[in-house]
Specification:
Distance between the termini: 35 Å
CATH class of the largest domain: Alpha Beta
Helix content: 40-55%
Structural class: alpha/beta
Number of strands: 13
Length: 515
């Protein structure tokens, strides 16, 4: 709960109140604990506090139980007990300004990005390509850039893969070897991606993440951007890759901000282990780099997972604020993870941290946050405050109503299919296929009839002039066709590359466009 008088977030209460410093929130946070121990309540309390202090929020809703944030909570015995025991005065149930999003467009505004903005590195991971195949994919993107062909959706990428495969010998010297086996592997992987919903995810209008930095027009609270993930979660590779793309886009979009009184934007990633499962070390290193550097952009990133060991040490080392709910240690592996979680806290002489983690009840947690000097506080055993919004998922009709009234409804609901690589390459291929037929037809028309052979022999000069005219006409026609394709490509590129004048085809830390 954000306390305006002291400009702090009242997060929990134990022997004393535990406050989260807004200026330290860009040092990121971790909410961990076994299933059913209260992680979602903690997430909601912190997210509500960010909104109250005027910070827009993004939340990945895996279980579908965060949609209730658009409605006020209801009194029950558990909340009444918490309010009484913690001495909370002026507690008010209230709804929060919410915007629903959904990659599949079923329970929220569609979330799309283009193939070009995703970039070859993330796509290679998404497609499950090996190192050689990933290299070929990077070559395909490079050729598309050099030819100024925009890759918007999967049919653009398929067309580009086919084009490069058919012309591999031509590009070998300049770009490197492009094997038919690698091209085939990429094509097969694209079919799998289509089955996972890739055709829906890639397209236009692409999401402009600046639209997530909005505020309530009534009271200035930050808008809660809730991404419906119950279906996306069933495709973990697509889910993880999308979140990584989003972080990279935010990193490249925001300017350096330095130390701020509060974050510009806060992100909560549920089931955070999906970001790192089976990810190559190079990619994990890039994630760690973004998490480390994005705090200077004023962004607070919170990872929600069952066990801290789900997060790589290189990323875990960047997290300053920690809320640890109960863990169970039934196996040697669980016991090792428990000790690691306990050792990550600054010890409190009043209790044994490892034993305390196992004895925590629902809603209780071990909490350690950064003070104003950036030093972790001694771990405290405390009860998390109750949320003010509803704990229950809302009816789909409520979500539909919120979506229909959204300020972005007209901007994102209807998909566009502008001219891009697929259309241009298809046109080129079609015209090239027609040219031999035209040559054959013209050759047939110039064949002399048997009855005219004598006349043709008597008038060689006249026949020669006619043939020269036909040849000239044919050459002019071919030049016109080639010119029309070129002009078409240039005009399409001018209309589609970027959303603003002057954007460059320069890919950033994850291979996405610099804004």
């Amino acid at each position: 709960m954000y306390c305006k008088d002291i400009h702090k977030v009242w997060l929990a209460t134990g022997e004393k109140r535990v406050y989260l410093e807004p200026s330290m929130c860009n040092r990121h946070g971790l909410i961990a604990g076994a299933t059913g121990t209260g992680k979602t309540v903690t997430l909601k309390v912190i997210a509500e506090s960010f909104s109250d202090m005027g910070v827009p929020v993004f939340v990945a809703d895996i279980k579908g139980d965060l949609s209730g944030m658009c409605q006020a909570g209801k009194e029950n015995k558990h909340i009444i007990r918490s309010i009484t025991n913690m001495g909370i005065e002026g507690f008010e149930y209230k709804p929060y300004p919410v915007q629903f999003w959904d990659v599949y467009g079923k329970q929220g505004l569609p979330v799309r990005t283009t193939v070009s903005e995703m970039g070859p590195d993330l796509l290679a991971r998404l497609l499950g390509l090996n190192e050689i195949q990933s290299g070929v994919l990077r070559i395909i993107f490079r050729i598309a850039d050099d030819k100024q062909l925009l890759l918007v959706d999967l049919k653009d990428l398929r067309a580009m893969v086919t084009f490069v495969g058919d012309n591999a010998a031509e590009y070998k010297i300049k770009y490197g070897n492009i094997s038919a086996q690698s091209v085939g592997a990429i094509q097969r992987a694209l079919l799998t991606l289509e089955d996972e919903g890739g055709e829906i995810f890639f397209g236009e209008p692409a999401l402009d993440l600046r639209d997530w930095r909005k505020f309530s027009e009534e009271d200035g609270r930050g808008v809660m951007n809730i991404l419906e993930c119950s279906e996306l979660f069933m495709h973990p590779l697509l889910y993880g890759t999308f979140l990584l793309w989003m972080l990279s886009e935010i990193y490249e979009m925001l300017p350096e901000a330095g130390d701020l009184e509060k974050p510009k934007l806060a992100f909560f990633f549920d089931e955070a282990h999906l970001l790192f499962d089976e990810a190559p070390k190079a990619l994990v290193d890039k994630v760690e780099q973004v998490v480390r550097l994005i705090r200077s952009k004023g962004v607070s990133v919170w990872f929600i997972t069952q066990n801290p060991t789900d997060i790589p040490d290189s990323v875990l080392g960047q997290i300053g604020n920690r809320v640890q709910h109960a863990l169970r240690a039934y196996t040697p592996k669980d016991q090792k993870a428990l000790r690691a979680a306990a050792d990550s806290f600054r010890k409190n002489p009043a209790f044994n941290t490892a034993e305390a983690i196992q004895a925590l009840g629902v809603g209780e947690a071990l909490v350690s946050v950064l003070d104003l000097d950036g030093v972790p506080t001694v771990v405290e055993k405390a009860n998390i405050l109750p949320p003010r919004s509803s704990m229950n998922a809302v009816d789909p009709s409520v979500i539909a109503s919120v979506v229909s009234e959204s300020r972005f409804h007209d901007k994102y609901m209807n998909e566009e299919d502008r001219e891009s690589a697929y259309e241009i390459l298809t046109a080129e291929s079609s015209e090239e296929a027609q040219e031999p037929e035209t040559d054959s037809a013209e050759a047939e028309s110039t064949k002399p009839e048997a009855s005219n052979l004598v006349k043709e022999e008597k008038a060689p000069k006249e026949t020669k002039k006619k043939e020269e005219k036909k040849t000239e006409k044919k050459t002019t026609k071919k030049t016109s066709k080639k010119k029309s394709v070129t002009e078409k490509m240039i005009n399409s590129t001018a209309n589609t590359i970027g959303r603003e004048v002057g954007k460059k085809i320069v890919r950033g830390i994850f291979g996405s466009f610099f804004k």
